Amino acid sequence: MKTLTKLLSDKLGAAFEACGYSPELGTVGLSDRPDLCRFQCNGAFAGAKLYHKAPRAIAADVVKALENDDELKKIECVGAGFINIDITDELLLSYVKDMLDDENLGIEQTEKPETILLDYGGPNVAKPLHIGHLRPAVIGEALKRLTRATGRTAISDVHLGDWGMPIGLFIAEMSERTDNKLDSVEITAKLLDEIYPFASARKNNDEAFYEKAREITKAMQNGDERYMPIWREILRASVEDIKKNYDRLNISFDYWYGESDSGSFIGELVDILNEQGLLYESDGALVVDVALEDDRITIPPVMVKKSDGSNIYATTDLATLIQRMKEFAPNEIWYVADSRQSLHFTQVFRCAKKAGIVPEDVKLEYLGFGTVNGSDGKPYKTRDGGVMKLEEFYRTVYDAALERVSGSKYSGEDEKADIARRITVATIKFGDLINHRTKDYVFDLDKFMAPDGKTGSFLLYTVARVNSILKKTGEPDGFDSKAVYTETERDLLHKIALSGEAFGLAYSEKAPNIVCENAYQLASSFSKFYHDNHILTEQDEDKKNAWIALCAALKIMLEKHLDVLGIESVDLM
């Protein structure tokens, strides 16, 4: 289904062409002044350069060609050559009906099959999830859902850090505590949470211990069977705990691959780089030059093997690309990662393209994100200044949500815990995603849980209000309104009709905040409509039925937004 602006662009394009101009000039966009008109076409200005004619004269020609179009309520030439447009209520109602009948709710689908592989999450095994793991998972999940909403195939991979120093530190500490009887250790999330912080702190003051951890890490990466059983147990316990935390936030992955899964491709990686003469020795390490002549900053060589022969992130990331191209053959691969990793991904992407590991027509994209900060503007921490665990962060928000719903007269005690869970997820996710992913933001619990404003609670409250109305009136049998009766009703219809545009823009910009903003605009517009029109007491049956149908339409569209954001709605609050 075409978006409303594309339908209008086709109409304007045909008019431009009928007047002797290029149809490409007929592109219609949303007006910056909705008080003057809803849509605008500025093609006459580009046409002036092509046809050496005043833009106002070109615009006047097009307006004249469309002045009797029965789908346009207004089309006029203003200023130096702007074309202002409003559509009729009949077209608006017809378009909304078509959207609701469309299985994709008017979200334009891709014209050609595409597979997008999304790498997000990236937690390290043996370490508990902390607040820094929130954004990659929340943003990546929304991007996955957004990609699928546009008709593309989206494949998600958590890409576990299961092959590095955290494992070596844990095993080194446990080997000393058990006198090397590693097979006697029962690995639990609680034990991991106890041992890793201790071992991580110990390495800073105990060089011999740190060297032992490095040796274990290297041996493990080379397949030393002494460490494989405990490594598998660490992996099992960690993944169980990680999944539990992600499940709470409605975050899931198609694949739970880790760095270790790339191990069988590292030999092939080294062979490819050697065969092409790209790999050379530098201070004992094996590196590949990836700098370009027009670089504005220094891009150092990418290290593939350390001087001791061990692997680093770049090694496993490059080997993982070999694996991904063979297993999935994606058209694009997106990496959702901390903004501080920009240089790393520049090096890896350039090396992969230079070596032909990834074909030129496959797009590699790094999507950086900012940090979650406290009121002091620094990364969010516990009260005692430590790094806050994700589980603790979730519990803090959940406790506040449960307190909010504890006095609800609309839900029973058994329902309150589930409603609090949904409010918690909405608070955390919407509070994060309303910000552009590249921006840092301050997590303010009271602000983010407020029942009005740009919050997840406001969206849930809006759905609950509609549910309350429909519970009293009954669900309408589809959307079949014949007229628009008030201006706030017309505004809400426009917001619904233009939602497809928002999803398309959010996908092209890879910016879930656009979906958040549109969801807020829908809810805000409904709030005005609800307060201006007395739906339940309206005596005119045609009006009442139209308004009930509009309530149901708003609910469907708003819940689509929430679903793409990974937020569950509520029946009542």
Question: If you had to describe this structure to a student in words, what would you say it looks like?
Answer:
The chain folds into four domains: 4-87, 2-Layer Sandwich (Gyrase A, domain 2); 115-160 and 255-357, Rossmann fold; 165-248, no CATH class; 390-565, Isoleucyl-tRNA Synthetase, Domain 1 (Orthogonal Bundle), CATH 1.10.730. The protein is globular and about 85 Å long. Helix content is 52%, strand content 10%. It has 573 residues and is of the alpha/beta class. Helix 10 (263-275) packs across helix 11 (313-327) and helix 16 (456-473) packs across helix 19 (512-532).
Mind sketching the topology for me?
Blueprint: H1 4-18, E1 28-30, E2 39-41, H2 43-51, H3 55-66, E3 72-78, E4 82-87, H4 89-101, E5 115-119, H5 134-149, E6 153-157, H6 165-177, H7 189-202, H8 207-221, H9 228-248, H10 263-275, E7 279-282, E8 285-288, E9 302-305, H11 313-327, E10 332-338, H12 342-354, E11 363-369, E12 372-373, H13 390-405, H14 413-433, E13 441-442, H15 445-448, H16 456-473, H17 487-497, H18 499-509, H19 512-532, H20 541-565
